[in-house]
Amino acid sequence: MAEITCSRCGGTKEAVQNTAFYRGEVREKLLAHACQDCWSEWIKMQIMLINEYRLNLMDPKTDEFLNKQILAFFKLDEGGEMANVDFVPPSQ
Ligand SMILES: [Zn+2]
């Protein structure tokens, strides 16, 4: 079990094991900086976002949006914010 310093909670904890559909650079960042506990919180947040914006997971714009949100959530995106207000749902 890899222990990392989580960029969100600051704790030294077990790193997230399975980054679901996050891939590439985002996945690398999560594996290096995201703890399992905060990941669980993110999953709840993600469900909220998907429901609130009726996101279509087959839409590449949804990927783009969630990638941005998760990096902001884990404070890995310089200047990134959890922007719930100005987001226009991709498929509406
Ligand atoms: Zn954490």
Report on the structure:
Helix content is 46%, strand content 7%. The chain is mostly helical and 92 residues long. The protein has a single domain, classed as YggX-like (Orthogonal Bundle), CATH 1.10.3880. The chain has a two-stranded antiparallel sheet with strand order 1-2. The longest helix has 18 residues, at 36-53. It is globular and about 35 Å long. Residues 6, 8-9, 11, 35, 37-38 line the site of zinc ion (ZN).
Kindly report the average pLDDT value.
Answer: 87
Which CATH architecture would you pick? Orthogonal Bundle
How many β-strands, per DSSP?
Answer: 2
Could you state the order of secondary-structure elements as H and E?
EEHHH
Write out the strand line-up for the largest beta sheet, numbering strands in chain order.
1-2
Distance between the termini: 42 Å
Q: Tell me roughly what share of residues is in helical segments.
A: 40-55%
The level-1 CATH class: Mainly Alpha
Q: Count up the helices.
A: 3
CATH topology: YggX-like
Our estimate of the beta-strand percent is 5-15%
What can be said about the biggest beta sheet?
Answer: 2 strands, antiparallel
- Note poorly predicted spans: none
Task: Catalogue the ligands.
Answer: zinc ion
Give a short overview.
With 92 residues, the protein is mainly α. 46% of the residues lie in helices and 7% in strands. β1 (3-5) and β2 form a beta hairpin.
